[in-house]
Amino acid sequence: MERKEFLSLIGLGSASALAAVCMGSCSKSAVGEANVPTAPSNVNISLDLTQPANLALGTAGGYVYSGGIIVARTTAGNYIAVSQTCTHQGAAVRYEGTNQRFYCASHGATFSNSGAVTGGPASAALQQYNTSLSGNILRVYS
Questions:
Q1: What 8-state DSSP symbol labels residue 53?
Q2: How far apart are the C-alpha atoms of 118 and 111, rounded to whole Å?
Q3: Rounded average pLDDT over 15-27
Q4: 25: number of CA atoms within 13 Å, CB side?
Q5: pLDDT tens, 59-106?
Q6: Cβ(68)–Cβ(83) under 8 Å?
Q7: What is the spatial distance between Cα 94 and Cα 86, in angstroms, rounded to a whole number?
């Protein structure tokens, strides 16, 4: 094998390996929804609404984060809870009470009060959890 042929083969092999790495890093599994953390399961959280950390839930449109979950109070006065992790790339969503939606400021994804996708780039719904109020204790559970 001549030197020129050897160098040509090394160059082609290196270029092929580099192209494979670059193409793989652009796939959905590297950038998209496949790397999003899973939503909490077996949830059973009790929030005392008189505690300072939970006072935001006393106001319509207020919300708090607890154990990977965002708990919000709608303008109608109902309590709702979904996974706080956006299904697009894992950023924390916030609740916009005036718009009655969950919103991810990182890429603009929007979700209804039930967690359903209403605007991309997310394509999967937020995990929804049950809520029940007994006195001043709000229970969030799966």
A1: G
A2: 5
A3: 42
A4: 6
A5: 999 999 999 999 999 999 999 999 999 999 888 999 998 999 999 999
A6: yes
A7: 10
